Amino acid sequence: MCEGHASPAEVAQGLPRPAEGPAVDPIRLEPVDEIRITTLVENVFDALLVGDERVSRVGLGAGRATAAQFLGGAADVGLRAEHGFAALVTVRRGTATTSVLFDAGLSPDALVVNAGRVGADLTGIQGIVLSHGHPDHAGGLAGLAGRKGTRALPMVLHPAAWTRRRLAPPGGEARELPTLSPRALAGEGFELVERRVPSVLLDGAVLITGEVDRTTEFERGMPPAHQAWTGSAWEHDAAVVDDQALVVHVKDKGLVVLTGCGHAGAVNIVRHARRLTGVPELYALLGGLHLNGPYFEPVIPPTVAALRELAPAALVPGHCTGWRAQHALAAALPEAWIAPSAGSTYVL
C-alpha cells in the first residue's frame, strides 16, 4: 500500500483541514532568528553523508578508540546508532542563544558519548523535554543524571509518561517495557513539570504541545499489541496520550516541528501546532513519524499527500519512520527531504 500514487480518496482524506472553532488555549509564540537541532541519538549513523547549507554532518574521526590491531594502537570512531532518539535544540534571538534537550535515547550512555564526540555541551541546557514515556526516549537520562549542570533541571513531561506498558504480540510472549520512576528522577535532582496542556519555554520561544488533538481519519495510533496497565488489567493503548512535540516559530519562515515518535500522527501534530499558534506555514518537520511495519503502511499514502500539501522547506523523518515511508517521502518531496543521521546539525 506504499507503492505508486495515492488514490484520489486517500489524497482528499489526507489534505489539511482546520479543526472546528478557535484553539481553546491559543499560544503567542515569539519568533526566533534561528534554530539548530543536533540529533544526538538516532537509529542510523552514516559517515559518508555530505552536508549543505541546511545541515552539517559528522563523519569518522569524531572520536578515537583503543584498537591494538592497528599501527599506533588506536582507530577513528563515529557515533553510536541505536533504536532511540535525542536532540539538542538551540534557539537564537539576536545574539542570545538558549538550549533544551528533547528526549534522551535508549541506552544509558549513547547520549553522553555522542554529545562528547560532536562537542555538544549538555551542561548549558536550560531544561529537558520528554516526548513520551517509552524507554527509547528516556533511557539516556541515567547517563545524564548527576552530571555537572543537570542538577535541578526542569523536565517537562506528560503525567501519562509514568504509564506501565507492554508489547503483547498475537501468539508471542508479552514483554513489559521499562517504566519511568518519578521518585528516581526526582532523586537525581530533576525538577519534574507534569503538563497535559501546552507549555511555553525559553521566554516564549519554544512551545511544547501537550496532548495533541486527533483530527485525521487515517492516523489511528498503535496496534493492539501495544498495551497499558489500567490498575486492574492490560488494555490496548492506541493513543499513547502522553505523546507531545516541540514547536518553534522561525521569523518570516514558519513553524519548525520536532517529534519524538509522532504517535499522535505527524499530520495531527502539525495541524495542532498550526491551530495553537495561528501560524499557517510549516517550515520544517523533523523526528520520528512512526510509519514502520505492516500495521502502519496504509497510513503512508495519506500522510505523504498531506505533507506534500503542507510543503515544508525541510523534512527530516528519522528514528521510527521506516524505510518504506522514507522512500515515499523522499520521492514526494525531493527538495525538502534530508537523510537522518546521528550527529547531524540542522540549521533553520
From TrEMBL:
Residues 1-25 are annotated as: Disordered. SUPFAM superfamilies: Metallo-hydrolase/oxidoreductase. It holds the Pfam family Lactamase_B. Residues 95-189 form the Metallo-beta-lactamase domain. Gene3D superfamilies: Ribonuclease Z/Hydroxyacylglutathione hydrolase-like. Signal peptide: none annotated. CDD domains: DHPS-like_MBL-fold. InterPro entries: DHPS-like_MBL-fold, Metallo-B-lactamas, Metallo-beta-lactamase_dom, RibonucZ/Hydroxyglut_hydro. This is MBL fold metallo-hydrolase.
